[in-house]
Amino acid sequence: MAVLFFFCEPKTVFDCAGFICSLQFLLGCNGFGIYGSHFKISRWRRIYSLSVAFLALLGLFGSLSVLLAAEDVKERLGKADGLVLSISVLELVMSTLVFVATVISLQICARRHLGIYMRLAALDYRLISDFGANLNYRKILRKNIVVLGLVTLIYTVAINCAAFQVTVGNRPLFLLFALCYTIVTGGPHFSGYVHMNLAEMLGIRFRLLQKLLCPEFLKWRFPQMQMRELRIRQLVSMVQELHYLVQEINVVYAFSLWTAMAHDLALSTSDLYLLFGQSVGIGGGGQQDDDEAKQGNRYLLLGYVTLCMLPPLYKLLIAPFYCDRTIREARKCLCLVEQLDNWFPEKSSMRPLVESLMSWRMQARIEFTSGLDVLLNRKVIAMFTSVLVNYLLILIQFAMTQKMGEQIEEQKVALQEWIGY
User: Fold this and answer.
1) In the 8-state DSSP scheme, what is residue 244?
2) What pLDDT was estimated at residue 284?
3) Helix (H) or strand (E) holding 407
């Protein structure tokens, strides 16, 4: 494939996840980078990550303070809608807090984060060497390149074009502000995609284990009873190891994921307000102007807002779907393990193995969660969707009420003029 022309053939999970983890590292949101064919934590890598985060925040608020001191910017802000300015300030503050929370939490959990990939690599080695499995690293890498490449291109172009469009003077400062804002908001977005990618990789291995736990396959591949029992025990331990990795991912991404979800929900509702307000002529516009050029600029800005809204919406609605699907695959694996003593009744050691895993299953709570134990499943998708839909309905009702009030006032004026007052 042409997509992988500039990339080496992936042979390990490090090669497969190297692209997205490198982007995460470049944005300062993890403490390890690629070293040869592995990931490595070092003092200089941690210094780089913290330096990128510090310089991004310094450039963001430094350029903003200089821009706010300019007279033309002050004049334009004075004419802007107050609610839109409040939304912009809220977005800037929340983005900064989420970025700081993501950097600090992932730096603290950097070794545990790296340990997830090392444990996945060890599990993949056992699957390939003992069972001859094909994990399709190439397909996963191709998907990561295509999805992240498109999202990065759209998001970066939208922010920088919007900054270029609204500027009359001080364009270098506006572009510096846009670049720093891209880093501050892009870091949590990429981290969310890394979490989504980890959930997807676990789901792939759960589906593979379901095929390997098939009794016909086990009898065909391992005709010797002792070897078959050994491989079954290995498969059961892999199922349990993947469940432990779910818990480990929850620990690493708990705080950063929770703050990012709160920010994405707030950003989505704010963008909906801007889009709806501009489209029906309420809010978001300050003084109305019928000049065609300014109308065209307004529609361009609406397009940029829509493009900037896509990454958080994608992450907010699709990530819980991946997590829910992985947990469903994990439960299917456990159901297959539960049948092992029925499939192989001649081995008395199967029943204690199954009973021990089932008792562990009853005690352990295996679900993808974010901070405050928010479950990431399809119910969360329904909740987020209902919030956005209800918010949009409230905006529609508000617009209809406002227009009705304007029509009543116009009718009063017309009636007064007709009476002669």
Assistant:
1) H
2) 44
3) helix 378-419
Has residue 291 got a pLDDT over 60? no
The string of DSSP codes covering 282-324 is SSS-SS----HHHHHHHHHHHHHHHHHHHHHHHHHHHHHHHHH
108-140 residue pLDDT tens: 999 999 999 999 999 999 999 988 888 888 888
8 A C-beta contact, residue 234 and residue 51: no
Q: Which amino acid is at 8?
A: C
- For residue 38, the cross-strand partners are 35
pLDDT greater at residue 20 or residue 402? 20
Residue 168 has φ and ψ, to the nearest 5°, of -115, -45
Dump the DSSP string for 182-230.
Answer: HHHHHHHHHHHHHHHHHHHHHHHHHHHHHHHT-HHHHHHH--SHHHHHH
How far apart (Å, rounded) are the C-alpha atoms in residues 67 and 61? 10
* Token pair for 168: 């009359």
Residue 70: its pLDDT value, please? 80
Exposed, middle or buried by CB within 10 Å (0-12, 13-18, 19+), for 414?
A: exposed
Closest CA relative to residue 242, chosen from 326, 319, 321, 324: 326
Residues pairing with 35 in the sheet: 38
Instruction: Check if the beta carbon of residue 270 is closer than 8 Å to that of residue 90.
Output: yes
Spatial neighbors of 210 by CB under 8 A, at least 6 apart, are 329, 332, 333, 336
Q: Nearest-CA neighbor of 339 among 246, 236, 223?
A: 236
- For residue 375, what are the β-bridge partners? 369
Angle CA 193–197–200, to nearest 5: 140
The owner of tokens 């295996």 is: 366
Tokens read off for 387: 């919030």
Q: Give the other-Cβ count within 10 Å of 142's Cβ.
A: 17
Q: Which of 264, 261, 287 is nearest to 84 (CA)?
A: 287
15, 182 Cβ separation under 8 angstroms: no
Place of tokens 């800005």: 301
pLDDT at 221 over 60: yes
In the three-class reduction of DSSP (H, G, I as helix; E, B as strand; rest coil), residue 63 is classed as helix
Q: Are 384 and 316 in contact (CB under 8 A)?
A: yes
Other C-beta atoms lying within 10 Å of the C-beta of residue 327: 22
Distance of CA 113 to the CA centre of its chain: 16
Q: How far apart are CA 19 and CA 24, in angstroms?
A: 9
Report DSSP state, residue 4. G
β 38-41/32-35 pair status = antiparallel
